[in-house]
Design a protein that fits this description.
Rossmann fold; 3-stranded antiparallel sheet; 9 strands
């Protein structure tokens, strides 16, 4: 999933399980021989030991500590087993893990690239940590040290929740006699109200923003606004920055040590900027993306029914330009909302049905007259449409408000939306005429049925 997310974000790793590299293998299950080699090295040095304690005993230790208001931690019992006791337990096939020895007198302060000086004696807060599980797989604490060393990692940037574990990792580097990388811990991203994000929340996953239609470049830019790493000018700007720009301008010294807060409104603003830039730079590409989104939505919603009678490329491009000009949308998927569905879909009969209740006027005659007037227009522009419809309403003595309502429902099936002449202009002459005729025929059929009844 992480690799898929990176691919979506156009962030391409220099090496990894899909592309290989000089420091593979890159799948943990294929590195077990390496982990065994280095855990045995710690065992030989006396820096680690086998622990045979059962889950039951560990649970009892934890419960007893909590009962007395103490920090739950392993009591290091198996550290003191004799070689004879160890061999007896192995012979009896007693399951065991391997733990790393923490020396209370030997702790490792370090300079965090984001938070500065950090000095915590990890032995005050936990017992000897497990570095190899009973199934032969390493814990993160051990694997990350071995992997980072073998892969020649120089800088580690990770979430603040790992900061407390870094002294433990530094002690492992020391036990091996290796030089550690530099560590920087990134502040957490919080909800807008300051509460912690939860895995139960949909918006904690990048896939949430992907499915909602946010552009990857916009999401990356937005993260810089809440996470820092840039000068104040860049931090406060929602102007366009390419991925290359962000890479060039980034400096870990400018990272904020304060938690960022999710602000969907700001993300919408950023995405709008990026969508407009994409439309200017490559309208064909953004149009193809929009058509894919719209086609998927309409086919999913209407299945075998006529899904999208206006999904031709030029129309979609025109709609995008129109929608962006007046900031009607922030992202492509906004065009799948009910208020914009008329752009792609002829109103259903059930939407037009309510016009049949306007018994005070001859709806069919109004639609027929409107159809004839629109047919005769040489220029299908908002100004000429507005003038022609106003003249028609005056000549026929039709209330203008009622007239516009009849046209709106016939064209879109909606009770509200953009001005009718603007709606007709963006739909185009052919589609507008087709919808007027469709509404006229449907209402005529309904009225004929009523007369027969």
């Amino acid at each position: 999933k992480i690799l898929e997310t990176l691919q979506w974000a156009k962030i391409h790793p220099d090496e990894g399980p899909l592309i290989g590299g000089n420091f593979g293998p890159y799948i943990q299950s294929q590195r077990t021989d390496l982990y065994n080699k280095y855990v045995n090295e710690l065992l030989k040095k006396g820096a680690a030991y086998k622990c045979f304690c059962t889950k039951l005993r560990l649970n009892l230790i934890r419960k007893d500590a909590m009962k007395h208001g103490e920090i739950p931690k392993y009591d290091n019992k198996c550290r003191h087993l004799s070689e004879t006791e160890i061999q007896e337990k192995i012979a009896a096939k007693t399951p065991y893990v391997i733990r790393f020895k923490l020396n209370p007198k030997d702790h490792e302060p370090f300079t965090d690239l984001v938070f500065g000086h950090y000095d915590v004696n990890i032995a005050d807060y936990e017992g000897d940590p497990v570095i190899m599980k009973s199934d032969g797989y390493p814990t993160y604490h051990f694997a990350n040290v071995v992997d980072d060393h073998l892969m020649e990692i120089t800088h580690v940037l990770r979430g603040q929740e790992w900061q407390v574990s870094t002294p433990k990792h530094l002690l492992m580097y020391k036990a091996f006699g290796w030089s550690p990388p530099q560590y920087g811990h990134l502040p957490l991203i919080m909800n807008s109200d300051g509460t912690k994000l939860s895995k139960r929340q949909g918006d904690i996953q990048i896939s949430f923003y992907q499915d909602k239609g946010y552009a990857p470049d916009a999401v990356l830019k937005y993260l810089t606004l809440i996470g820092g790493g840039y000068t104040q000018t860049v931090d406060n700007s929602i102007e366009y920055d390419s991925l290359e720009d962000l890479v060039t301008k980034f400096s870990v010294q400018n990272m904020s040590s304060h938690s960022g807060h999710i602000d969907i409104e700001k993300l919408e603003q950023v995405n709008k900027v990026y969508l407009q830039r994409a439309l200017n730079d490559d309208p064909d590409l953004i149009t193809e993306q929009a058509m894919k989104v719209l086609r998927k939505h309409l086919q999913s919603k209407y299945q075998d029914r006529n899904s999208g009678d206006l999904l031709d490329k030029q129309h979609v491009t025109d709609i995008l330009c129109w929608a962006m000009k007046d900031s009607r949308i922030c992202k492509i998927t906004d065009l799948t909302e009910p208020e914009w569905e008329f752009l792609w879909k002829t109103p259903s009969n059930s939407q037009i049905q309510e016009l049949c209740e306007k018994s005070s006027v001859d709806i069919c005659k109004i639609l027929q007259d409107c159809y004839n007037v629109v047919c005769q227009l040489q220029e299908f522009q908002e100004y000429s449409l507005k003038k022609a419809l106003s003249v028609l309403a005056k000549e026929k003595g039709i209330n203008m408000k009622l007239f516009m309502h009849i046209l709106r429902v016939s064209l879109s099936g909606l009770q509200a939306g953009p001005p009718v002449v603007e709606m007709m202009s963006i739909l185009g002459k052919e589609a507008s005429l087709r919808r007027l005729k469709h509404a006229e025929h449907f209402i005529n059929d309904v009225q004929c049925v009523d007369i027969k009844s």
